[in-house]
Amino acid sequence: MAVLSVSRRTVTRSVRALGVVSASAALALGAAGNAAACNINEFSAEAKCEGDKGVITVTDVDPAGVPATVTVFLQNNGADIEKIGEQVVKGSKKGTTITFEEDWKPNAEYRIHVTAKPYVDEDIKPNLVTPSTPCKEDEEESPSPEPTPSEETSAPAEESEEPTPAPSESTSESAPPADTSDNAPSPAGESNLAETGANSNTGMIAGVAAALVAIGGGAVFFGMRRRGANSQR
């Protein structure tokens, strides 16, 4: 009886030990299986350029190929301000990449959340920060040519000066038409008399005329006397 009781105790202890070992192995295998099935460390994100446009890519290297939902949020000061998009990715050993078209700005911050129940429900850490250089450089406006000194001085003068009237307009408006009748030449000897009514030479002319009249009268007188003398003979 003593031998049988010892054997039973030994078997019971062995079974218990085997059960503990089996449970530990199951837990280890379960943890290993969960780790192999899907893990947040198997996801990575990157901001890239495709031509002149920006994109955000997320790569899943889960060899088990567990479908996972990836959601991208634009953040500002630690808060989500815009949902960029959501896609499902099925990872592979070589890696499966999905692309979100997002024309990101330099130094922008994005939060990327991965959900693969019952394995993963968390964000990729740290948040994605875009490069400081944009995909397309803004074209700088060419400076306008500076005006030359002549242009700078002449422009104000042109604005301040008032248009002056043409010579023909000023003459016709300000001066009356010339009287050509007064300026026309008059016959000799009449101009002074017509203008003044008398002349400084009038006395001399009168004297000469009187002398001529006297001489003529004397000649007539002597002629008549000579004719009378001849007739008496």
Automatic annotation (TrEMBL):
UniProt-annotated stretches for the region Disordered: 123-199
Regions crossing the membrane: 204-224
Signal peptide: 1-37
Biased composition (Low complexity): 167-178
Protein name stated in the entry: Membrane protein
Keyword Transmembrane helix among UniProt keywords: yes
Keyword rRNA-binding: no
Keywords attached to this entry: Membrane, Signal, Transmembrane, Transmembrane helix
Species per Swiss-Prot/TrEMBL record: Streptomyces griseorubens
